[in-house]
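User: I'm writing a short methods note and want a consistent example. For DUF1761 domain-containing protein, I'll paste the sequence; you return only the structure tokens, no commentary, since I'll be parsing the reply automatically.
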Amino acid sequence: MLLSSINYGAVFVSGILSLVLGFLWMAVIWAKPYQRDMYGKTSLSEDTVSKSTKIQSFVIYIMVSFVTSIAFAVCLELWKAGGQAFGYDGNSLTGAFGFTMLLTAGYTLPFTVGKKVWQFKSWLVVAVDTSYEIVRFTMLLLMFWFWK
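Assistant:
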């Protein structure tokens, strides 16, 4: 079965690293412009959010990160196997990177661009969120590619 071939150690570590990367990307590297454009002056301040709400947010995000890691691992295994069926080199890291970028664009752009189109956030928010996803999926690729 396909799920039995997944490296669950890499799933666990990449799920945690996605959380760390997200914190660094949104709260350290791009903190001021992102928080200004994403939340504005009407957002809840750090002091008004309860500790239980923060813990709940952390747990939800880490669970979603694990699901994302598992889904990506399955897609990568299918891409590797498809090389035999469709005549491309399934063992090419360069090809896997192209596949990862296509997958990232197809599954993240509707959500990141949706923030501009439907929530009227700035293009900066779209750029920060999209660039985070590109870096995150590249991290996932490298972890699943090299962690044997």
